[in-house]
C-alpha cells in the first residue's frame, strides 16, 4: 500500500514529497505483478532512495508527549494539528508536514513526555529556521503572536467576475482558521428580496450589466460600465459594513469576498482599533488566460450562463482593470491567479506580511 510506504519513509527521515514520489514509482513498477518478495521490495526501495541515509524508525506505538497550557490544561501533541497551523503561517502543506514530523521525531527520540506550549512553539520556530530559514520562521512567530493576541482578522478579497477568488478565499480561510466566509453575491441576493427593481435596479443584474438599468443622469459623463459597477458596489457596501460591524461586536474573524469588494469604497479606519483589517485583490492579468477560464467553463457546463460571460468579456475585463487601478491607488496587493495553489500561498503570505506591520518580529523567547 503506497500510503503505508509513504508513512514509513517519512518516519525514517525522508521528506514527504520525496517519500510520495518514491512510493508512487514503486507502485508503478510492481503494478503488473501479482506478488513480490519483501527482500526484492526492500532492494527496489533502496535503489530509488539512492545514497540517502535512513535513520532508525520511531516506534508508532510510542505515546506522544503532552503539551501543557498556562491555564493548566494539557493535550497530546498532534503533528496533524501543528501542520495545519503552520499552513496559516503561509507554509507549503508538504513543508508544514515535514516540520511537524521532524519536531515529533525530535521529541520522541529525546524521550520528552511533556512540554510547555511556549517551549514547544520555540522548538517549532527553531525547526522552521533550521529547515527553511529566518524569514519563514519570522512568519510563524508573527502568526502565533496574532493568534494569541485574540484580535479578529477582517479580510476583504476583491476581484472581477471569474478570476477564482471564491475558491481561493475558502482555502485561505481554512488555513487561517477563519470560520466565517461571506460573498457579496449573497449580500446582493438578500438585498434583492428587500428592494424592488424599481427602487434599486442596479442590484437586480450582473455587475457588468448594471449600467443598462441606470438612467443617463445617474451615469453622468462616467464610463457606463464602470459607473454601473460603482453604483452597484455602493449599494452592496451597506451589507458589507453590517457584516464587519457584527464581526467586531462578536470579536470574530471574517473573510468577505466578491466583485463588489471595491478598494477604498468603505472607510475601514473605524475597525483598525479593534481588528486586523486586511484588503487585497485577486486578478488574472493575462487577457487570454482570463478569457480561457470562461471558455473552459462554457465547454464544461454547457450552459447559457457560462456563455454569457464570454459575450460580456470586454465589460468584465474593463471592470478588472478599474479594480486593479483602485487597488494600486490604495496600496493593496494584487495577486495574479496563475494557478490555484500558488495563488492561495501568495494570498496567505500577503496576509502575514500585512500582519507583520502591526505584529513585528519577536524573539524565540517571546514566541
What percentage of amino acids are in beta strands? Answer: 5-15%
- Could you say how many structural domains there are in total? 3
Strand tally, please?
8
User: Under CATH, the topology of the largest domain is which?
Assistant: Rossmann fold
Which CATH architecture of the largest domain is right?
Answer: 3-Layer(aba) Sandwich
Oligomer: single chain
Shape from CA axes?
globular
Question: Rg, please?
Answer: 25 Å
What average pLDDT do the residues reach?
A: 88
Description:
Helix 7 crosses helix 16 and helix 8 packs across helix 16. The model is unreliable at 361-367 (pLDDT under 50). The chain has helices spanning 2-11, 16-30, 38-49, 79-88, 93-109, 117-132, 134-149, 165-176, 184-194, 216-219, 224-250, 269-272, 287-301, 304-311, 313-329, 340-358; strands at 66-68, 74-76, 114-116, 153-158, 180-183, 254-258, 276-283, 334-336. It is an alpha/beta fold. It has 3 domains: 2-49, no CATH class; 66-149; 153-336, Rossmann fold (3-Layer(aba) Sandwich), CATH 3.40.50.300. The protein is built from 16 helices and 8 strands. The chain is globular and about 80 Å long.
Summarize the structure.
The chain contains 16 helices and eight strands. The chain has helices at 2-11, 16-30, 38-49, 79-88, 93-109, 117-132, 134-149, 165-176, 184-194, 216-219, 224-250, 269-272, 287-301, 304-311, 313-329, 340-358; strands at 66-68, 74-76, 114-116, 153-158, 180-183, 254-258, 276-283, 334-336.
Write the layout of secondary structure elements.
Blueprint lengths: L1 H10 L4 H15 L7 H12 L16 E3 L5 E3 L2 H10 L4 H17 L4 E3 H16 L1 H16 L3 E6 L6 H12 L3 E4 H11 L21 H4 L4 H27 L3 E5 L10 H4 L3 E8 L3 H15 L2 H8 L1 H17 L4 E3 L3 H19 L9
Parallel strand pairs: 1-3, 4-6, 4-7, 5-6, 7-8
Antiparallel strand pairs: 1-2
Helix pairs in contact: 1-2, 2-3, 4-5, 4-8, 5-6, 6-7, 7-16, 8-16, 13-14
